[in-house]
Design brief:
This protein is an all-alpha fold. It has ten helices and no strands. The protein is globular and about 45 Å long.
Length: about 200
Amino acid sequence: MKTTDFIENWLKENLSTKRYSHSIGCANCAKKLAKMYSQDENKAYLAGLVHDLAKNLGDDKLYDIIVNKIKTGYSNHELKNPKTYHAIAGAYLAKKIFEIEDKEIISAIRNHTIGKVDMTTFDKIIFLADKIEPNERDEKYSKKIFKILEKNKGTIGLDIAILKCTKETIKSLIKRQLYICPETINVYNNLITSVGYLFKDND
């Protein structure tokens, strides 16, 4: 695997200033969440750091990588909204550019945008860190999510927090008239069934 210095320099050169700031924020937030949930903090930091490595490559290039190089492991639904492309391509490019072979990190990159049913604790940490990191995300929203985590101990807190994030994502996609992947609906349905009774919309 490439060194952290190499990875950070590559990200600085290939991401916008705002996206790089977001990546650093996500890395630090992921490390904090990893400590809370007894996961590998250094691995979480790295996953948070690289999760958006493909974000600024452009939709056409990302589509070409997905269709002509990756070819499998994604649904046609994911190709209907370009905002999902970078997660699919990012998991592939993390191996090619940074020589990252750790399956947990690759899975977290792959699933950080729309998630999936039955994510691992590590997947959930990176998914959530992406939504609540302190550098570029809304501070009030982040505080609400951390209150959920503090109020609901254990990984059930992660599930309730992700349920809230997924609900907000769906509302945002509807507002912007963008395609909603069935995978996102599946995540919502799975969580509303399992932890919905603990979820309050005003949390």
